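re: ur question from earlier - yeah i can do the single chain one, its not a big deal. heres the input i used so u can compare w yours
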Amino acid sequence: MSQAKTAGQKHVPLRMCVGCREALAKRALVRVVRDPDGVRVDPGGKASGRGAYVHDRRECWEHALRGPLEQALKTEISAADRELLVGSMNRLAPEADKPADPPPARGGAA
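and the output i got, formated as tokens:
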């Protein structure tokens, strides 16, 4: 017996950020890939090679570059590749400059 999906419900693949270990939709994260040429950012998310995912937040990149990214990609990141990744990180806005999420709406009568 097979389970039927309800109409309009689509599977959303989840991936974990190697910086903060939070699981989010794959499209909400930046993919970093290890291929024969080295380690690089994969903007399309489709390049062949071993991949890892990181938030588009500077603090996640900083933490990931301390070691978890190397562990996830199962390689040592060269100095040249590290410079490219740090350049990608530096293009991100600092957390203080990003707009804060609006507070959650409160239900109920006042």
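The chain has one domain: 14-96. not sure if urs matches, ping me
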